[in-house]
Amino acid sequence: MGVRNRAPDRIAKLSLEARDGFCQGISKGDMGAIMASGIEIIPELCVRDTAAARAMLTGIFGFAGQGDLLALGEQRIALVQGAGDIGHGGIDHLALAVSDVPAALSALQARGAVLEETTPNGPGHIAEFWDAGIAYVFLRGPEGARIELCSRLPADTRTGLPSHDHIGIPCTDIAASVGFFSGLGFATVHSVSLHRPDGVTEVRFLSAGRSVVELYEPPALRGAKNPFTANSFWRGLRLIGSGLAAGERTGPDGLRLTLI
């Protein structure tokens, strides 16, 4: 969450929590059916040193698990082996829901967490969302991968936190990205246009099963051609439980998705 002019490699980031039944355009009953459907997206985190990444995710962020699949609440991460120069790409970040951002940040910093340059001065706020706004902060994950903490204000009352909040995906054509995820069974649960000095950023949140994706199209990316590095930290997504035929899909902006 936050609005800044950034180069495509470090884009202006906008987020909001969109996983409860009061989201725009979908009833509480329909949301319950979606959340109970068993669909799950697992982001793939590509790093050069998977052992060090596992140690950081478990020792600092609180994930648990064996091998290359780790979990924190309803959020799972798949570690994959990478090589060379890895950067920020078409999947920008993973966001974890917490009940209180400053308290969670303090606890994680005590374990060695480091602020990421998107929020160098600590937590930020977006007052436009929900009754009292939202709080957010970005931390450096393994090898610099972005991990966000976010919560509703004055306190996030969801149970089972910390856990999954969303996966942040910047877009050059948000309508095309919405269409791609809609074809996979996702439903739009919140839409917003954020007006800032550098222009309007369109944000859409889509949900299926336990997973939420945040699609956002800032002015700097709108209509851009091939702005993302292929060798990125958040390399791809694994979609489980959709009922669709297994295999690889390629979405807008080269997004990699594996149906399992």
TrEMBL record:
Gene Ontology biological-process annotations: L-methylmalonyl-CoA metabolic process
Record has Metal-binding as a keyword: yes
InterPro entries linked to this entry: Glyas_Bleomycin-R_OHBP_Dase, MMCE/EMCE_epimerase, VOC_core
Transmembrane segments: none
PROSITE patterns, A to Z: VOC (PS51819)
GO molecular function: metal ion binding; methylmalonyl-CoA epimerase activity
Keywords of the record: Metal-binding
Top-level lineage group: Bacteria
Domain VOC: from-to ranges: 38-152
Name of the featured protein: VOC domain-containing protein
Species per Swiss-Prot/TrEMBL record: Paragemmobacter aquarius
